[in-house]
Amino acid sequence: MVALTKEYLRAHLSENVSLDKISRAIGISKYYLHRVFTELNGSTPLAYLTFIRLEQAKHQLQFSKDSIFEIA
């Protein structure tokens, strides 16, 4: 379940993602998703999404010629 959630989040980085959308996509309740993901991953699904977005932006800032505005 955690792997499916992480896969979904990576595939939808640039979209407006909510706990409802994630839970519908992987077929479990949003409450169960939040509880189990947080227990096993150490952060909430949306906090993890923020983390991977920041990591992607950091990588783009280091290795691309895109402006800060474009990356943001």
How would the blueprint of this fold be written?
Blueprint: H1 2-11, H2 19-26, H3 30-41, H4 45-63, H5 68-71
Quick summary of this structure?
74% of the residues lie in helices and 0% in strands. By secondary structure, the protein is an all-alpha fold.
- Rg computed from alpha carbons, rounded to a whole number of angstroms: 14 Å
The biggest sheet, with number of strands, parallel, antiparallel or mixed sense and barrel status, is: none
Helix content: over 70%
Report the count of strand segments: 0
- Element order: H for helix, E for strand: HHHHH
- Separation of termini? 30 Å
Global shape:
elongated
Please count the helical segments: 5
User: What is the typical, i.e. mean, pLDDT?
Assistant: 94
Binned strand content: under 5%
Low-confidence parts: none
Which structural class is indicated by helix and strand composition? Answer: mainly alpha
Note down, in words, how this protein is organized:
The chain has 72 residues and is an all-alpha fold. It is built from 5 helices and no strands. Helix 1 crosses helix 2 and helix 1 crosses helix 4. The longest helix is centred in the C-terminal third of the chain and has 19 residues. The mean pLDDT is 94.
